[in-house]
């Protein structure tokens, strides 16, 4: 088994927990983040449970093996002939959106047969299509991200003398796409692989799906968002950037076009948008959000890795980790202060500030001030790369970010 097929225990446990539940399991995420591998691993787990192979139907619609199945009628016909008549059949559909009106076939399988269905998709359109109408309330989305830092440590082989902080620097440079672990930290090979992933996403999941023809504008918007992770932006500010960029071939672009291109990037899971939440007013604000990239390695491939941008890279890594841990995440606004992240579940709320270092007194005061100003009883945490720093200040926890990622 290749490195990219190592087991990711968290996702496997989720699939096992949902096994035989009467919902369609839909795994979403950017291409090459491990969805197909996860389906293969889970199917293998079923075999270990002595479920016969004839009760497991696996179809990857990017394989030439299924190139002739292009409509929901053809999909239904192919699968119906192979479904076990008496016992439950497990259906695995990888990148099923390639099949026209596939949702109708999935709905019919649920109605006509005793099945347990697992689907992957590389575009959020999967959930906003006819599926949501046909099987409303009968599906669950499992959001897959590239490797966490803990998974990165498990997937890679390191020199025994390499310190944990140095391993983290490799993570901050190359990101967490599982395929990158096959190249033994060879920068040229990793970035070439990431470029291939990025180009496939841009062409298949964004340009072709959304009928986008202006590849130059799309590239400039992608670079702008990648460069400005952790920074507040608006459609107007992005439009102004395009106009002011003397080297740009586009002196202007309609705001609606810019907005639609950014939405397409978000739907392909390249970027995640964060809304601002007014802590005092207890409401979401409609303007001035942030975008974070799905994998920091892709960002570094596009723009180059720069030490001067470590703070924003750190912030992006923390944001992705909060998503992995099941938090709903917003940017916080309280009076004139900005809180990097407000992370919530139905049971808890945590305020986070993220800073490369707190050694400088002015930086420490700047980062602590927003959290000190909020007088509620929810947990407040500052994350930095400092070691042996104080662990709390006026009830605010101060943690090393690597320790946090390893929790």
Short structural description:
The protein has 407 residues and is an alpha/beta fold.
What would the keywords be for this entry?
single chain; alpha/beta; 16 helices; 20% strand; globular
List the helices and strands and how they pair.
Elements: H1 9-18, E1 24-28, H2 35-48, E2 56-60, H3 72-80, E3 89-94, H4 102-112, E4 115-121, H5 125-128, H6 131-134, E5 139-143, H7 149-155, H8 164-174, H9 187-210, H10 215-227, H11 235-244, H12 255-267, E6 271-278, E7 283-293, H13 296-303, H14 310-324, E8 328-334, E9 337-344, E10 349-354, H15 361-373, E11 379-384, E12 392-393, E13 396-400, H16 401-405
Parallel strand pairs: 1-4, 1-5, 2-3, 3-4, 6-8, 10-11, 11-13
Antiparallel strand pairs: 6-7, 8-9, 9-10, 12-13
Largest sheet: 8 strands, mixed
| Helix/strand class | alpha/beta
Strand content: 15-25%
- Cα gyration radius (Å): 23 Å
Percent of residues in helices: 40-55%
Poorly predicted runs of 5 or more residues: none
Average pLDDT taken over every residue = 93
Oligomer: single chain
Count the beta strands: 13
Morphology call:
globular
Q: Termini distance?
A: 28 Å
Number of helices: 16
Order of helices and strands: HEHEHEHEHHEHHHHHHEEHHEEEHEEEH
- Write out the strand line-up for the largest beta sheet, numbering strands in chain order: 7-6-8-9-10-11-13-12
